[in-house]
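We were asked to recover a plausible sequence for a given structure. The inputs and outputs are reproduced exactly as logged, with field labels preserved.

PROBLEM: sequence recovery
POSITIONS: 481
GIVEN STRUCTURE:
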């Protein structure tokens, strides 16, 4: 059963199907504002839908470090994309979070393999800083937009341009058109974010355009291109006749509003803020989407390589991997401790926090710190953990689906999110308060659920060849819009 559409996503789709004029309003008469705060609306609506709890908090930066960071951004570092990037027909634009250590180099698992396999000169431009904590990027032609973004944030403070009244008007009018109410305080938070982004937008776009002048790509493959955050950037790309594609980076489905759109987003100025192509991991991920572009199955080359590299024989697997969902630390803590109490010491319980939780791990999971037989997995490469796991336990994560490629037993915990993210794809959902049946399957005292074969639709083989074939088909094609 394919996961269903949540009421929060349906509210956004219904709004776009009605297509009120305010969705097309632009502060400067050019880039509609709606895509740039669309994700904020959807996220706010999801809070009661999914029962989200404590958010992940980042540790604040000191005033001295903040000013040092700003000063460094003006010193023209060699990895600054608008100043140093070189010509390449294919440019990958990534967030810079999908990275881990490969020796003493930084490897981007999302776009790195495609950059290597493309068969043409390819540049990687990421929003995050470089080279990162592990040294130089593995792909030499890698530059960062982070110094330029910091400069843009600094310059906007001295700008006399103040669009806050117009932004506030548009946001409030859009929210009045919704069929559902937002949680308390959500509207103010959305307005605050929209005002800040709109103030920075001219400076960010100027820097992005200078980068494009240097790289001159025919194709840009951009992470999270459908989210709306980069709506103005995508419009610049399409104005230049550059083909824009988004590579799938995680779970997508009918309830994910970043990949499902109503009628207003299928043409005109709103369509021009979305990518032309969505490149998926497998046929499964594209079914049921309302996406105005072309959906092409490519695969996940890094997964292909990892399965052969990390998979241990099942007889040697003595670990149960629990993957954090970030939504409810207390409930996840209870699951880990319950598993530890029920399983013999023949098995290790390996808890893998989400990367965003690592800085505040002791605050979010204090009851797991120092527990004998509970191992925290801090490795950058999740596939090392999957290759050694007999079973994976989780709520709503791409890791649940990836585990099928490694032959793991997969147990999806019942939660408000399960209906929309996993359905019954991995068999009956598991009640977090009743884990005895799951333990019996893991230990083999009852027949284990069989998830083999599920990976065939989820993970297309020959990802490198598929990408090269797609690239050959689209190079030189002028995007519509």
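RECOVERED SEQUENCE:
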């Amino acid at each position: 059963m394919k996961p269903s559409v949540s009421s929060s996503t349906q509210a956004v789709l219904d709004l776009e199907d009605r297509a009120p004029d305010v969705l097309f309003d632009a502060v400067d008469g050019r880039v509609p504002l709606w895509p740039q705060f669309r994700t904020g609306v959807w996220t706010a609506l999801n809070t009661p839908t999914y029962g989200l709890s404590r958010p992940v908090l980042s540790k604040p930066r000191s005033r001295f470090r903040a000013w040092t960071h700003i000063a460094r951004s003006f010193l023209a570092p060699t990895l600054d994309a608008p100043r140093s990037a070189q010509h390449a027909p294919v440019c990958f634009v990534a967030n810079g979070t999908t990275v881990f250590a490969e020796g003493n180099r930084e490897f981007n698992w999302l776009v790195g393999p495609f950059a290597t396999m493309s068969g043409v000169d390819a540049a990687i431009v990421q929003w995050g800083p470089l080279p990162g904590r592990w040294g130089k990027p593995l792909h030499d032609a890698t530059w960062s937009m982070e110094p330029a973004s910091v400069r843009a944030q600094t310059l906007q403070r001295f700008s006399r341009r103040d669009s806050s009244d117009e932004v506030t008007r548009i946001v409030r009018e859009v929210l009045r058109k919704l069929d559902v109410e937002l949680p308390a305080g959500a509207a103010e938070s959305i307005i605050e974010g929209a005002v800040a982004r709109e103030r920075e937008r001219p400076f960010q776009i100027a820097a992005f355009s200078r980068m494009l002048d240097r790289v001159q790509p025919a194709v840009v493959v951009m992470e999270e291109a459908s989210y709306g955050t980069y709506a103005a950037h995508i419009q610049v790309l399409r104005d230049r006749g550059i083909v824009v594609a988004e590579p799938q980076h995680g779970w997508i489905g009918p309830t994910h509003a970043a990949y499902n759109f109503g009628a207003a987003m299928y043409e005109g100025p709103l369509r021009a803020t979305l990518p032309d192509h969505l490149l998926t991991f497998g046929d499964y991920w594209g079914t049921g989407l309302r996406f105005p572009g072309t959906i092409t199955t490519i695969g996940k080359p890094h997964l292909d390589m990892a399965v052969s590299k990390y998979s241990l024989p099942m007889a040697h697997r003595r670990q149960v991997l629990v993957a954090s969902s970030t939504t409810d630390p207390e409930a996840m803590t209870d699951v880990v401790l319950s598993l530890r109490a029920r399983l013999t010491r023949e098995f290790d319980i390996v808890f893998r926090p989400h990367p965003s939780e690592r800085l505040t791990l002791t605050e979010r999971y204090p009851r797991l710190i120092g527990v004998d037989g509970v191992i925290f997995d801090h490795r950058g490469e999740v596939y090392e953990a999957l290759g050694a796991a007999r079973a994976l336990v989780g709520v709503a994560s791409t890791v649940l689906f990836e585990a099928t490629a490694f032959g793991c037993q997969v147990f999806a915990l019942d939660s408000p999110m399960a209906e929309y993210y996993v359905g019954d794809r991995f068999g009956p959902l598991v009640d977090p308060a009743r884990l005895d049946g799951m333990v019996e399957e893991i230990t083999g005292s009852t027949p284990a659920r069989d998830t083999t074969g599920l990976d065939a639709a989820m993970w297309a083989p020959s990802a490198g060849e598929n990408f090269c074939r797609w690239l050959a088909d689209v190079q030189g094609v002028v995007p519509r819009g």
